[in-house]
Amino acid sequence: MLLQAVILATDLQYLTQKQFMNVKRTFGIILTVLGIAALIYFATLFINASGTERQIKILVVYGVLGAIFFFTGIGLIRNTRDDARPPID
């Protein structure tokens, strides 16, 4: 009975850990897509900007936020272990 409880607890821990990794990877994908969208919007504003102080501030905000979201999302995707991948020997 005790052995079955230990096995069940180990299986439950493995499943929740695996599901949490998928959530991190999904969140990384969402951040990356938001970052790409912000960077595209930044590029559009940059091309149409006339150089006023307000437009420069908006450009900086969208560019910095887009870069932060993009690189954070890529970092989450790259650094999250995937249990479906075969081990490297």
Task: Give structural notes.
The chain contains 2 helices and no strands. The protein is an all-alpha fold. 83% of the residues lie in helices and 0% in strands. It has helices at 2-48, 53-79. It has a domain at 19-78. The two termini are 37 Å apart. The model has no long low-confidence stretch (mean pLDDT 77).
Give a concise summary.
This protein has 89 residues and is an all-alpha fold.
Present the secondary structure layout.
Elements: H1 2-48, H2 53-79
Q: What are the low-pLDDT stretches, counting only 5+ consecutive residues below 50?
A: none
Overall structural class, as computed from helix and strand content, comes to mainly alpha
Shape: rod-shaped
Residue share in β-strands: under 5%
Number of continuous helical runs: 2
**Gyration radius, rounded:** 21 Å
Mean pLDDT: 77
- SSE series: HH
Q: Can you summarize the main beta sheet?
A: none
Q: How many E-type strands?
A: 0
Q: In whole angstroms, how far apart are the ends?
A: 37 Å
Estimate percent helicity. Answer: over 70%
